[in-house]
Write a structure and sequence with these properties.
- By secondary structure, the protein is of the alpha/beta class.
- The protein has a single domain, classed as HUPs (Rossmann fold), CATH 3.40.50.
- The chain contains six helices and eleven strands.
- The strands form two sheets. The protein has a nine-stranded mixed beta sheet, sandwiched between helices. A two-stranded antiparallel ribbon has the order 2-3.
- Helix 2 packs across helix 5 and helix 3 crosses helix 4.
């Protein structure tokens, strides 16, 4: 799986439809997962990825040939793709699954993306480091492993040199950041400090309705998205009990003794 021989870059941005970050999450009555009958929007880290692809084209001008977005999800997920198109992507691919099917796991998503990348001849994948619903943070790493491509995770700055077919990435690590240089093709996962996504304007929202959106099924890519894990039960965390105030240390010690705590 090699990039195109030309120096023009083909960028793929995977996005996910997730419960909106402002929604208060509640467990559904069946205790099989969270209540999904709420507002959904694009995963915030994926918004950053779309914005970075658009900004990269502005910086590199004619060196970027195309920006394509892809999602795996039910029919309603096409709304998320239209949002990405309004932000500046050129075209979209919707790998559609039935509404009743469970959300695919990171390995299944990575396998589907790997098949799609082979078909589309992608040079650079920019994707969110994690989704705010499952918080797995695994798909980008699994995708790079399946493709045998370099990976730059938790990117807070991205510079691409199309001539040299390389990228320099500043990435977040414990205690600071590190700078790494990678060859293309490359998988990059985005951190919060990479950029601040802009809102799509009304004219761009209208234009997005005319941009191409291709629909596929997992079978079209010869991928099985059947989950490998089974969720037995989902419950709310126990209610937190409010604390109390004490006037002095003696009162604190007395209350601790009442609660059964003793000095070692």
């Amino acid at each position: 799986m090699r990039p195109t021989s030309a120096r023009l870059l083909n960028i793929l941005v995977p996005v996910k439809r997730a419960v909106d970050y402002a929604v208060k999450i509640r467990v559904n009555p069946q205790q099989t997962g969270v209540d999904l009958n709420v507002k959904h929007s694009m995963n915030p880290f994926d918004e950053i990825a779309v914005e970075e692809a658009v900004q990269l084209r502005k910086r590199l001008k004619d060196a970027v040939q195309s920006i394509k977005v892809v999602t795996i999800g039910p029919p309603k997920a096409s709304e998320t793709l239209r949002t990405a198109l309004a932000m500046g992507a050129d075209s979209a691919i919707h790998i559609e699954i039935p509404e009743a099917d469970p959300a695919p796991e990171p390995l299944g998503v990575a396998r589907a993306l790997a098949k799609l990348i082979e078909r589309e001849k992608v040079d650079l994948v920019i994707m969110g480091k994690q989704a705010i619903d499952d918080d797995a943070g695994q798909t980008g790493q699994m995708l790079a492993g399946l493709l045998d491509w370099p990976q730059a995770t938790f990117a807070s700055k991205l510079d691409v040199d199309p001539e040299a077919k390389s990228a320099t990435v500043l990435r977040e690590v414990d205690g600071g950041s590190e700078e790494i240089k990678c060859r293309l093709p490359l998988v990059v996962t985005t951190d919060l400090r990479l950029n601040e996504p802009h809102y799509a304007t009304l004219p761009n929202i209208m234009k997005a309705k005319k941009k191409p959106l291709e629909k596929l099924t997992p079978a079209d890519l010869s991928v099985d998205l059947t989950p490998r894990l089974e969720t037995i039960k989902v419950t709310e965390p126990p209610a937190r009990i409010g604390g109390g105030k004490v006037a002095n240390v003696d009162e604190l010690v007395a209350k601790l003794k009442e609660a059964g705590f003793t000095a070692a």
